Structure formats: structure tokens, C-alpha cells
User: What shape does this take?
Amino acid sequence: MELTYLTEPLQYAFMQRSLVVAVLVGVICAVIGSYLMVQRLALLGDAISHSLLPGLAIAFMLGINIYIGAFIAGVISTVIISLIHTRSPVKEDAAMGIVFSAFFAFGIILITLIQKDNKIDLNHFLFGNILGVTLADVRDTALMAALVLLCVFLFYKELLFYSFDRLGAQAAGLPVSLLNSGLMVLIALTVVASLKSVGVVLVLALLITPSAAAYLLAARLHQVMLLGSAIGVISSISGLYLSYYVNLPSGPAIVMVASGFFFLALLFSPAHGLLTQPQSQSVLPLWRDIRSLFR
Amino acid sequence: MVDHAAIAVEHLSVSYRSLQALRNISFGLQPGQLVGIFGPNGAGKSTLVKAMLGLIPAVTGRIYYGDRLLSDQLDRTAYVPQRSQIDWTFPATVWDVVLMGRVKQAGWFNRFSTPSRHIAAAALERVGMSQLRDRPIGALSGGQQQRVFLARALAQQADLFFFDEPFVGVDQKTETVLFRIFGELAQAGKIVVVVNHDLGESITHFDQLLLLNRELIAFGPRQQVFTAENMVRAYGGQVQFFSSVA
Assistant: This one.
């Protein structure tokens, strides 16, 4: 009886397409997000995703595949970020902030301009519209996901060494600049593939949140990736159904479910849970400081 | 200046933006030597090791190993960074880290071979950590973490070993294991370079000492390096008790 709530929507072809995209995006975001998380590159994921917008708009104007335009813009943004922080005293986080807001602003201007003459909705790119994926979207997402997963599978041991100890890997003779660039390309591909389901504003959550939840529960990187994928897929599919039944934008729905998983892990993780591992910190430092002011 | 099959550092200078970190350093190392690099904080000890391996760019200078540049032969080197430079909350077990020592040897696209796994297991055994193989690295003590890194370096089966401050925050047992294995490596004809800032009794373990403070102050056997004049040049005035060690 209840099961029909899950199966009934799947008789529609558009729901089947959406489901495929939800699963693919849930998996690759968690896998690549694991690298972002362990390397403290969360902000870079956010920067790349916001930077996609102008590439997408320009590709649309020129009539080429918007994924290609978005990918090129994403790669260009990482190149500019690294140029700024290696060639000037400006720090990397500031460089990211400058570049991604500039790209994002430019993208919004372009899309606003073309929106007037075309049936293109800025909101769908910002917040995702997983129910609107076409057969071509499914094909492109599947291609990108296959490429990302194949690369991670083939270069897993090198990427593990590199992401754990960059200097040690370099001193062992691994081409760390090439590995770094490759990882940037994989991040850009993943973000592009997630455009339709979560949108550029919230893709960071699908990259970081499932892998962070898994990180609290698993001890090895590949376990974090697998468990994170499961959490990502469940979140994506839940978001899809919420979108279908309650008419919510898919991106925020997916992100809220994933965040729920993260807070469950944060509270109940056997090794690191706030409730399972009682901390002996009796007084909050802030409260202690305030009290001492009035003593 | 140096025999065949040894390291020759020639006129090495390194700058960080406008600050000159190392000035015109030249010395040579022979197989079978256990070399300690000493100097005060900010002397450029870690910088010297990183520049020798090409991990940071040099302004001038070349480092040869045999007839070729050392930076072109990094598959023969093992480098262990300072423990504080590593994120020990990284999701990896002891075994994961030791196997990293076999990544380069395994080659692209290949899985770790059975001999590779045996080499890694033997390295872990040699540092006395076999029973902790499946433990997450975040759950290890400082000394155990350092021994895991030593095992990774051993698994690389390198000819040149570089350790950056391996004795910081480790227990007595680990210090004993480190010096025992450093000695064994040197006896096997390897070159072992150890950055150290502690001038305590452990200094007697080193064959050669390199005293550094932005420039090379002295290099050679302990008695020759530890003169009052050299110590004042490296450390300034606060070195009275070291003369008794030397």
C-alpha cells in the first residue's frame, strides 16, 4: 500500500530519467566530495560550481552543449584562482572568493539577458530542477559520471597518497602537479554533472555533507566513499520524491535530507558521536569568559 | 669534490619572496653515512632537505646524485615530513599508509602485487607495528605515527632517506627503534639524512653533522663540527653546555 507511493511515480518516463540522474549524482558527488573534504578544499568546490554559470550561458547563446561550456568555465576559474594565489600575495581563500563571485555575477547577468528572449529559467540552474531532465541530460550525466568513477578507480592509490601527504608523494616521484590538475578536472566534471539536480548554489552540500557524514562513521577513504555514496543516493532519491509530491525545488530538498543524515551521524557515530562519546568539557569557554567579566 | 654514486650539493640558495632562507650551501654525502642536520629554529634545516629533493624551487645551485640530478631520481628517495605537517584525522589505517610506500613501484593502473604487500608487511614488522595494522592513524600515539612513517619509507626500498624532525614528541621506545633502523640503513650502504634540533645525547648516533644557520657553518665528524667557535656562529651566545657533549 505504502509502497505505491514509491512505485507509482516511476510509471512516468520523466521520473525514471530523474531517478537515474539522482543516483549517478549522489554517487559521484560523494566520491569526489571525499577528496574535497580530506584536503580541506570545500570552498574550492563552491567556487567552481558558482563559476560554471557564465560558461553555461555562453554555450546556450552559441547553441553548443551547455555542459561543455559550464565545464570550460569551471576549469578556467580554477586556473585563475591558482594564478592569483601563486603569483600574488593574495591568499587562496580570498582568490576563490574574488573569482567565484565575479564569475557568478557575470553568469547571472548573461542569463538574465538571454532569459528575455528564450525559455530558460535562471532558478533551475541556481537551485536545480531534477524533474526536468531530458534524455540527453541523462546521457551526458552518465558519460560524465562514468569518466569520473573510472578515473578515481584507476588512480585511486596515487590520489590517496597525494591527498594524504603531498610532499611525501612528490618526494617519492609521483607527478603531484598532474594529480592536482586531474583532481580539479574531476571536481569540475562532477559539479557540471550535478547542475540539473541540485543547481550551482547548493551542489557544495551534496559534495561535502554525505562524505562528511560517512567520515564520522568509517575509518578508510574508500569506505568513506562507499558509505557517502549510499547516503548521497538516498538523499538524492528522497529529494526527488519530495520534489514530485510536494513540488519543492529538488536541490534544497536533497540538501535537507543529506543534512539530516549528517546530524544523525554527528550525534550517534560510535567513534565520534556527540552523544555516544561524552566530552568532559563541563563549561563552555564562551560562558566562562562572560562569567569572569562580572566577577 | 665528491666521489661517484654520492650526493653533491653545489652552491644551493633558496629564497622565500624577499627573505633568503639558504645561502650558497655546498657539501657532499657518501653512501653509508648517517647525517644529522642541526641548527637553531629558522636556520633553514627543513628548507635544505626540501630543496635537495626539489620539493621547493632553488634560486641557484644543483644537487647531483651520481651523474644525474637528484630531482630526476626521486624513485630512489624516501622522505618523511614533520609529523605536524600531516592531517592525522585523515581516514586511513596504518596499513593504508605503509602501502603508500609501494605506490610508485607498483606503477600506474596496477594493483599492489603480492611481493609489494610482503615488503610492506615486513617494513611494518621491522618497526614493531604489525599488530596495529588495521588501526586508524588518528588513534595512534605520536611515536607510533612516526614509526608508521618510518615503515612507509622502508617499504619504498629507497637508497636515500630524508627524515624531518623525526624525534619530536615521540616516546623512548620509538627513539630507540628509529636510531636502530637508521644505523642498519647506513650499514647497508644507504644515505640517511635526519633533520634534528635537539642537541642532547642522541647526537652521538650520527656519523656526520651538518651545522646550519642560513649558511653552512660546519660539516664533518662530530668532534670537528662541535667547536665553541662553530656553536657561537650557529646559535649565538647560549651554547655553553654543548661543548661538554662534544
